[in-house]
Amino acid sequence: MRILRSAGVGVLLFLSFSAFGKLIVVNTTNNILPLPGETNLVQAISLLEDGDTIGFNIPGPGPFYLDTPPFLLFNGYPPITNHNVTIDGYTQPGSAPNTNPILSSNNARIQIVIDARGGGYHSELVPGAFDLSESEQIFIKGATNVNIRGLCFLGPGTGAGDELDPYRYAIGFTPGSHRGHISACWFGVDLDRTNVFRFRDAVAAFRANTTNYVNNTIIGVGSDTSSASEARAQFNVIVGEFIPVILEGQGYRISGNFFNVFPDGMTDYNVDGNDPHNIEAFIEIGRRGDNVVIGTDGDGVNDDEERNIFGGITVAGEQEFIQWYSSNTMTNNVIAGNYFGLATDGVTRFTNSMAIFGGLTAASTFRIGSDFDGVSDDLEANVISMNYPFDTLFPSPEQPGTPKPPRFANLTVNSLGPRISFRGNKLMGNN
Q1: How far apart are CA 4 and CA 78, in angstroms?
Q2: Under a CB-based contact definition with an 8 Å cutoff, are residues 266 and 260 in contact?
Q3: What are phi and psi of 85, to 5 degrees?
Q4: Coil, helix or strand for 348?
Q5: Is this structure's pTM higher than 0.70?
Q6: Structural Rg of the chain based on CA atoms
Q7: Contact in structure between 125 and 116 (CB atoms under 8 Å)
Q8: Cβ distance 36 to 280 under 8 Å?
Q9: pLDDT tens digits, residue range 207-221?
């Protein structure tokens, strides 16, 4: 749970893109001193106007690793403050988005890496939301409809949470940065599909006060996708983060993602509580938490491509896969079609013994699984594999202090009122 706390030189290359904005082409990895005729990502972000797109055309064989400028003297990349802008890594020649279904491997060919392993970052005070103990790679500051796609983000670790070593986020949204869309990106896992370089958070969006939130963020597949191929081209792979996604507001859609599952779809980043294999929760929704879809929306369009695949957990800071926090409402929420503790083949089980969610209030309304309205009912089933492998997690004879096998969720509340529909799911090894 989050605690609320008080241009370089060179000739810039532009191409006409549309009547609504221009295309700014990044053609160098040199983020410090680009040569004449070169445009780097720092300059490209600085030159954004409403409606623009940043594309890439870096010469030579890829992939291309763009080292984040250091905090001193550059303060990393400048914040994005313009509306309706896009950073599209798939414009780089040789790249291509994923074409496989969600229940398969992710075959995206990403060519542009936002590489923070050297320690570079952006940090600034946004009262009530971000302070100097936090940092970002891409920082979206009050801008709406920002689309980030086709990038790989590699982190330097989680950070210590102070001004000398701030928490490290790949992407940060400030209050008012509504309707952002993060798609077809890899976080934490390198392009070799194996090595992990984690952040604290992959995507962090924090409110400032009770009237200024970050709403309607999409992580993965958008609701307006018209075909299976379009949906598959939006899948994210998020591996190794302490809190992969934390959002404060409402109207979120988190669909079509691998969480702690490597691109092969069959191997998980097993979380056992020991750094760097530790986690607080996969998804944290705070402060409001209404009208959230995690997985399949069940509208009959691409429902089979909207599920999330979650790796296994045996120890978590919040003792849950998904956490709602600091809200008195949490209404009209859907968790459907997801695989928890199970690989994409639907057979291979990950080491997992962790409750899915909890902490509901008297006003909460949740649907977990199918609504049985005759549309995509079978696809809305969550598959929940827990307490596996049992003899390893809970040895016999029982040892003092050995935890009991958990239930799939803790629905206990202090007062009557929550309304929960739990139907049509498939449970494996649940207590």
Answers
A1: 24
A2: no
A3: -110, 160
A4: coil
A5: yes
A6: 21
A7: no
A8: no
A9: 999 999 999 999 999
